[in-house]
Queue: 2 jobs
Job 1
Amino acid sequence: MRSVANKTIEEPRSHRGTPVWELARLYPSQGHWSEEAYLDLHSNQLIEFTHGVLEFLEIPTLKHQLIVAFLYERLQAHVRRDKLGKVLFAPLRIRVAPETIREPDVVYLSHKKVPRNKSKPPEGADLVMEVVSPSEASRKRDLIEKRRDYAQAGIAEYWIVDPESSTITVLALNGSKYEQAGKYKSGQKATSRRLPGFEIDVTEALTAD
């Protein structure tokens, strides 16, 4: 029983009698998670980690996943043809800074970026892609926060695929910050500086089926 605003309410309990929210007390509160505790967390939910805080990502839509699959297949074909490394997709944890781990939708790792211990998150990447989800929180995360984090991690190229604006923005690292290498719209082809010869038709990507 609990008292709230001078009223007594019955605590929700499992069939074994223990209040179900006792489970939450087994975990750190927001702002107090360690990287070790985060890495030990097993969940079917996409979760990123920044400075002690867990960020719960939206469950992707079918449209989102079709675009991700298209991007992965095209990038994988290019990298495999020239034997340049590995192309992977979320869920995959990438350490971008101390106490900061992201899960890009698509990630390219050159051979030197692939860790020897494959049970550990890779340290950074060479190229990452994010398909922007429509919520305000997701847009802020992909357009602002991840742009900052990926630049600080030294990731050479960041592709932002935005179905809402029907664009693909390619950001190239210049020093410690990104500069816009190109913003491409339907009917155009987005091109890579990091991977010469790699390009994506914007219309094909955004209408992937």
Note: The radius of gyration is 20 Å.
Job 2
Amino acid sequence: MPSIVYTVREGDTLWNIAKAYGTTVNDIARYNGIVETDVIYPGQRLRIFVPEESTPKWYVVRPGDTLTKIAEKFGTTVQRLMWLNDISDPNLIYPRQRLRIRP
């Protein structure tokens, strides 16, 4: 099952995150060693295992993105993103560029 790394934002709850990624609060808590499911912090990074079909097929590059950050976010590799998008230089991506995340 693919996984992503999610960075908690102000106002997030495990319930909202779980709902957005098609998983459960208990699964996120278990994967991340969280005992108190009502206590998460902005900036905290959570590994979330998601069903393949809930991983988006496309991603639009934002300012500051790198292929490494995008690969980590979607639980894939830089090499796979380069292959899927016919990219020869991993340092040459641009804001608003549309990248394929999965076939």
Note: The chain has a mean pLDDT of 88.
